[in-house]
Amino acid sequence: MAVMTDAVTAGDAALSVRALTVDLPKGMERVHAVENVSFDLKRGQILCIIGESGSGKSVTANTIMGLLPKIIQVSSGAINLDGTTIVGAPAKKLRQLRGRVVSMIFQDPLSALNPLMTVGEQVTEVMAAHGVGNKASRRERALELLTEVGLPDPELMYHQYPFRLSGGQRQRVMIAMALALEPTVLIADEPTTALDVTTQAQILKLIRDIQRRKDMSVMFITHDFGVVAEIADSVVVMEKGRIVEQGTADQVLKSPSHPYTQRLIAAVPRLTGEDRKLKAQANDETVLTVNGLCKTYRSGSALFGSQRVVPAVQDASFTLAAGRTLGIVGESGSGKSSLGRLLIKLQDSDSGQILFEGRDILKLSESEFRPLRPRIQMIFQDPFASLNPRSTIGQILTVGPVAHGMPYAQAREEARALLSHVGLDAGAFGRYPHEFSGGQRQRIGIARALMFKPKLLIADEAVSALDVSIQAQILKLLDQIQRETGVSMVFITHDLRVASQICDEIAVMQKGRVVERGPPSQIFLKPQSDYTRELVAAIPGERRRES
Amino acid sequence: MTAIAANSPRERWWNSRTAHRFMKHHLALIGMVMIALLTLACVLGPHLLPYDSLYIDLRARFAPPLTGKHFLGTDPLGRDLAARLFMAGRISLLVGFSAMLLSTLIGTLVGVVAGYRGGLVGTVLMRAVDGFLSFPSIFLVLALAAALKPSPIMITVVIAATSWMEVARIVEAEVRSLREREFVLAGRMLGLSATHIMFREILPNAMGPIIVAATLTVARAILMEAYISFLGYGIQPPLPSWGNMLNGAQQYLGTAPWLAIIPGAAITIAVTSFNFIGDGLRDALDVRGDHS
């Protein structure tokens, strides 16, 4: 590693970082946010920095941009940006560099854009702030940029406000802003994480194209090895603030040398295309049958004629057998989460049938359905929001069974047993949710759903908020639980790779409709509908692996 | 953020970040100390003074403060001002606190139900709140106080009846946003009753804003009691309150200004201190003010 970095002469590095150490304030879980980090971004290349949450990758990017919060300090090291030393430079000099020499695009394009300014104003503002051009020339340049990032109808776009645009369009506007002053270095901090997979593929292609056209240097921060495979020339792998491995993309992806990298790559969910091996089952009874389920959201007021009608789920039909998993896959807005909430009656359906163990639960009132609630449980997406911060783990687990008449002593014993079953210490019982990591909280969420020994589990994006290595563990746990208890699962996800790991059958949803349904082998290898084909093609990292 | 939280051992509340943020708020600390001193003085003071609040020392009428044996002076009847001030403080602080408890209880109840139920129930409740808010409350208080027989309990009820709306609004907004959180959905998934979800799952998470609103309500209730008593509809002499002490001081403003200044200062100190504490709590309980 040291040999490789020394071999690079300063001349062909657009950005070089040497022995950078950044301190965290006292009392945090470690002393340094990043420690002794050295790497080079060569001119005209894309360098990916990859790591799980808390690895220090974003701190590194913010140090280069000079955007660290005051409580975090650079303690040693040097950063050389296009011939200028940054660490210790006065604030005014840094401000001149930002935008002109280095610029940045962020993960969430909605919060990074000013909601009260039109797209055109935001792009021209960057130029005005650096005193470039006059009003007319800035406008012309902004239109040119909007065209360059592939936004349709730039003239119209110029006058739009950010909330009118889709996520992908907003990210394109961010890129246009970042490119306004033709910077030498572009830093992209997880720019596609918040986007749908098809949009992600387009944005990745756009960044790659622009980088080639302008011969820019790009530092791309991501947690997804699929994205690395799509875009990187070279790769830096970070763990807990240190660089554990760096090299060319081929080296790192094909023959990783550090055990952490190997573990990470192994944990990346692969598109299997193979059907899941079924457990031999005595009874093949149907647990859930859904016929023509419909739900339309109405907002605003019908009285004042401002009603908005959004069809969320249209005519959904499927069946699910005991001990099987049905994956529901779609992009944001496809209605997959609405469908999950309709099944468990957290929302009322408009029409259709939900037959659970032969009984239509759709028509039941809340009080009629309450005795059945224990039989259908749900695992939620957000491990932070789904546990009440003011309740202990014990209260969270026992409150449901106790409300349904189980004696507290029995509930407590079962909760303790379940906690160790899902891989947690039984001592977790008396502690509060904030004392646990994301993966541990998701295990608690799973234990809560299992307290009732349900027949049907609905997992709504249950692993989406987790790092890949944790994701793999949780998927394994769910698989193990299903084999032990024979519970049926509806697994809702936006990630086809995850779905291919755990599902017996997959339903693809688009705009509220199920467009295709079949076993993974059909969905991934011989997709029938155009939309499924598009989705599968957009999965990052699959192309390179095949070639 | 996660990793830090996961590593932090079980904390005592006085070691928590909230407590630390509050301790850093100097004005709030001063307020806290002032209220503690004031309460202590009102509770213990009368026992330590040589004079009862009703004892008439005719030879020492209109004694200015720090002259003779009456360290805060005497009133036109020769009663010891310090003794009266502390006794009045008991009444004023008690009315302030009880009015706060009562109005917070009503406000929280209305707010939680309106916020969680939403729809028609929520609309009706919140429009009732709007209705109460649109009365000029001081006139309502005076009209009620004039119609009913004034007693400390009556005054407390009247003040509470005109000051619960703010708490209701704050709680309703808070509950409405908490209602959408996944842990509330999880409660419904477990089949918990609506009452359980409202008061055992959601309410503990809304305590921060409720405590802040309650603190500010004490300040307003003390002020309100002073208005009413000053205008003669509140606490009736000879029972002293800070408000009716001011009333009695009016006609001697030129000759014996300390009669107005001393209870006036007590009211100002109490009200400002409660407002400082409220501000401090607001900053301390607001997690968004924390940068990690």
From TrEMBL, chain A:
Residues 19-265, 288-536 form the ABC transporter domain. PROSITE patterns: ABC_TRANSPORTER_1, ABC_TRANSPORTER_2. SUPFAM superfamilies: P-loop containing nucleoside triphosphate hydrolases (SSF52540). It is a peripheral membrane protein. It is found in: Cell inner membrane. One of its GO terms (molecular function) is ATP binding. Keywords: ATP-binding, Cell membrane, Membrane, Nucleotide-binding, Transport. Pfam families: ABC_tran, oligo_HPY. InterPro entries: AAA+_ATPase, ABC_Ni/Peptide_Import, ABC_transporter-like_ATP-bd, ABC_transporter-like_CS, Oligopep_ABC_C, P-loop_NTPase. NCBIfam families: PRK10419.1, PRK11308.1. Belongs to the ABC transporter superfamily. This is ABC transporter ATP-binding protein. It comes from Rhizobium herbae. The lineage of its organism: Bacteria, Pseudomonadati, Pseudomonadota, Alphaproteobacteria, Hyphomicrobiales.
From TrEMBL, chain B:
PROSITE patterns: ABC_TM1. It comes from the Bacteria. It is found in: Cell membrane. Pfam families: BPD_transp_1, OppC_N. Residues 89-278 form the ABC transmembrane type-1 domain. CDD domains: TM_PBP2 (cd06261). The chain crosses the membrane at residues 27-49, 91-116, 128-147, 153-171, 210-235, 255-278. Its main location: membrane. InterPro entries: BP-dependent_transpt_permease, MetI-like, MetI-like_sf, OppC_N. It is a multi-pass membrane protein. Keywords: Cell membrane, Membrane, Peptide transport, Protein transport, Transmembrane, Transmembrane helix, Transport. Belongs to the binding-protein-dependent transport system permease family. PANTHER family: D,D-DIPEPTIDE TRANSPORT SYSTEM PERMEASE PROTEIN DDPC-RELATED (PTHR43386:SF1), OLIGOPEPTIDE TRANSPORT SYSTEM PERMEASE PROTEIN APPC (PTHR43386). This is ABC transporter permease. It comes from Rhizobium herbae.
